[in-house]
Design brief:
The protein is built from no helices and 4 strands. It is mostly beta strands and 85 residues long. Strands 2-1-3-4 form a 4-stranded antiparallel β-sheet, with no helix packed on it.
């Protein structure tokens, strides 16, 4: 949660996926959902259901964690190219 230390058991992780890197953000993502929680190492997995990409291709993943309060320090986001495995 501080940007450097993995957070185990972190919940409320919402994600969106685009089949391009960089994505056309004027288009809706091709897939999205809520991850259950991070594991003991601070990692979580996303199970894409609607992607047209195969393993080895790269799309864009947006991850948002929010407590629902505008301006809260708990609100974090990440967006970057990610390879499908």
């Amino acid at each position: 949660t501080d940007g450097a230390t993995p957070a185990a058991g972190l919940s409320g992780i919402r994600w969106a996926w685009w089949d391009a890197a960089p994505p056309d953000l004027s288009l809706a993502p091709v897939d999205s959902g809520v991850a259950a929680a991070t594991d003991a190492n601070g990692l979580f997995s996303v199970g894409l259901q609607n992607t047209s990409l195969s393993s080895g291709n790269t799309g864009t993943l947006l991850v948002v964690i929010s407590d629902g309060v505008a301006g809260s320090a708990a609100n974090k986001a990440f967006c970057a190219p990610v390879e499908v495995t």
